[in-house]
């Protein structure tokens, strides 16, 4: 059996504002209507995995157990870090190394953690880090 991830869902205080932050970071398109939920996706017509923002009454209280690792397609890791900072993100930890490797751990305006890594075009060919297991 195979599945695909339809959306990554963010519980949030202000769905529209958080979706607009992520729109700046991802460059994706915003989809909304009179519904309080807001969808952000990579293209129109919307097809593939997107981000769904749902307003909830409670605030974030602990570190996320799952987070996003972002890698730019058309810019550099450092430019994407700057774009996220300008949109309202904050740095939790800067793990960039002198040789250009590493990542930056960040959080969005509502405290959701994410990391920004180098894009494939910055890294070059990689050897696989894991083997494929079959059941």
UniProtKB/TrEMBL annotation:
CDD domains xref list = VOC
- PROSITE patterns in alphabetical order: VOC
A Pfam family that the UniProt record links to this protein: Glyoxalase_6
Q: Where is the VOC domain?
A: 4-119
PANTHER family per record: CONSERVED PROTEIN, HYPOTHETICAL FUSION PROTEIN
Q: What is this protein called?
A: VOC family protein
Q: What is the lineage of its organism?
A: Bacteria, Bacillati, Actinomycetota, Actinomycetes, Propionibacteriales
């Amino acid at each position: 059996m195979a599945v695909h991830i339809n959306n990554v869902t963010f519980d949030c205080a202000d769905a529209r504002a958080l979706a607009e932050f992520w729109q700046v970071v991802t460059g994706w398109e915003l989809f909304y209507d009179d519904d309080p939920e807001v969808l952000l996706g990579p293209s129109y017509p919307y097809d593939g995995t997107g981000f769904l923002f749902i307003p909830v009454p409670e605030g974030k209280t602990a570190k996320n157990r799952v987070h996003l690792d972002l890698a730019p397609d058309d810019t550099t890791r450092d430019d994407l870090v700057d774009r996220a900072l300008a949109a309202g993100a904050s740095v939790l930890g800067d793990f960039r190394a002198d040789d250009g490797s590493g990542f930056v751990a960040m959080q969005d305006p509502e405290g959701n953690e994410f990391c920004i890594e180098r894009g494939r075009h910055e890294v070059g060919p990689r050897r696989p880090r894991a083997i494929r297991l079959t059941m």
